[in-house]
């Protein structure tokens, strides 16, 4: 009899291309994933992966097994959703994923208000700048600020999310008058090698301003900009929350993204999820002006 734990391990390695990557994906350990793959290979009497210079690759037997394993995974997820969809009570757990900036500065009061209204609904909140998969049941509800939705999910597009270039008013008052025509003498707070943001800097009125630091966390950019460390790209709502920040003169807002609330289609029948999504969308819509910026 096949140990069903070995199929998720097989799929994780096939997707990640390595034991370590598979362990990270499945919240397991390198040794556990290896044991499960070895057990599956021993049970089937075939080698499923071969090692190459750039990681693990499926053998012919592995490629033959892959579509069957994916089909089994899909069937299992549908079964989970079917069970969840039977829930008609305003009680239970909802897994929510959101980026830390939105959660800390905009979402906290919304969740507090919802908790008072529905004391039997519990929220498991995962804060990450990565994207939890709805299709693979990594989350129930997700708040995303993206240009387009690439996942099979039910979505409510709320409004544009504006990004802008911000700096402390005192920094601009001190530095702008003596800056060169293309920003010489000014400072960008850097996100690192992020092509989209580097392109934004290149197209800005200040392409020759110095890019300092490598800081991937937008919250740290917010605090540094407030302290006068330079210019940075942030969501437009920061200006309403932190009046010491000012949109840098001559810069435009980027409104190519939109704020979405997403959930798995099967969960629309779950009362607690429906209540939460309705409340969340209404509460965020009340803050529409902050998201769109000015």
Provide a descriptive summary of the structure in words.
The chain has 294 residues and is α/β, with parallel strands linked by helices. 43% of the residues lie in helices and 22% in strands. It is built from 11 helices and 11 strands. The strands form 3 sheets. Strands 3, 4, 5, 6, 9, 10 and 11 form a 7-stranded mixed beta sheet that branches. A two-stranded antiparallel sheet has the order 1-2. α5 (100-117) links the parallel β3 and β4. α1 (6-16) packs across α2 (19-25) and α5 crosses α10. It is flat and about 75 Å long. The model has no long low-confidence stretch (mean pLDDT 87).
Question: What's the layout of helices and strands?
Answer:
Blueprint (H helix, E strand, L loop, with lengths): L5 H11 L2 H7 L4 H15 L4 E4 L2 E4 L1 H25 L7 E7 L1 H18 L3 E7 L13 E6 L7 E15 H7 L11 E3 L5 H9 L6 E3 L5 H9 L5 E4 L2 H4 L3 E3 L6 E10 L7 H16 L1 H5 L2
Parallel strand pairs: 3-4, 3-5, 7-8
Antiparallel strand pairs: 1-2, 5-11, 6-9, 6-10, 6-11
Helix pairs in contact: 1-2, 1-3, 1-4, 2-3, 5-10
Core attributes:
single chain; 294 residues; alpha/beta; seven-stranded mixed β-sheet; two-stranded antiparallel ribbon; 11 helices; 11 strands; 43% helix; flat
Q: What would you report as the Rg, rounded to the nearest angstrom?
A: 24 Å
Question: What is the number of helices?
Answer: 11
Strand content: 15-25%
- Overall body shape: flat
Q: Name the poorly predicted regions.
A: none
Mean pLDDT: 87
N- to C-terminal separation? 63 Å
The overall strand count is 11
Percent of residues in helices: 40-55%
Sheet/helix structural class: alpha/beta
**Order of SSEs:** HHHEEHEHEEEHEHEHEHEEHH
> In this structure, how is the largest beta sheet organized?
7 strands, mixed
């Amino acid at each position: 009899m096949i140990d069903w734990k070995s199929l998720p391990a097989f799929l994780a390695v096939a997707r990640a291309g390595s034991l370590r990557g598979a362990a990270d994906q499945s919240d397991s350990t390198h040794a556990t994933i290896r044991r499960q793959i070895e057990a599956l290979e021993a049970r089937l009497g075939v080698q499923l992966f071969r090692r190459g210079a750039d990681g693990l690759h499926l053998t012919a037997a592995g490629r033959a097994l892959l579509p069957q394993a994916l089909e089994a995974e899909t069937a299992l997820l549908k079964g989970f959703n079917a069970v969840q969809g039977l829930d008609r009570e305003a009680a239970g757990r909802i897994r929510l994923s959101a980026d830390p900036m939105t959660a800390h500065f905009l979402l906290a009061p919304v969740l507090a208000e919802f908790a008072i209204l529905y004391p039997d609904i519990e929220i498991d909140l995962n804060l990450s700048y990565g994207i939890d998969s709805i299709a693979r049941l990594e989350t129930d509800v997700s708040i995303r600020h993206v240009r387009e939705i690439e996942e099979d999910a039910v979505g409510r597009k709320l409004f544009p999310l504006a990004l802008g270039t911000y700096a402390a008013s005192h920094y601009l008052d001190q530095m702008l008058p003596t800056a060169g025509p293309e920003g010489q003498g000014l400072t960008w707070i850097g996100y690192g090698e992020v092509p989209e943001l580097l392109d934004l800097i290149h197209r800005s009125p200040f392409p020759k301003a110095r890019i300092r630091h490598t800081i991937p966390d937008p919250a740290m950019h917010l605090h540094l900009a407030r302290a006068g460390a330079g210019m940075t790209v942030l969501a437009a709502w920061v200006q309403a929350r932190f009046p010491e920040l000012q949109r840098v003169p001559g810069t435009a807002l980027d409104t190519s993204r939109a704020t979405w609330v997403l959930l798995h289609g099967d969960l629309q029948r779950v009362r607690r999820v429906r209540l939460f999504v309705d409340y969340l969308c209404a509460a965020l819509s009340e803050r529409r002006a902050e998201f769109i910026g000015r």
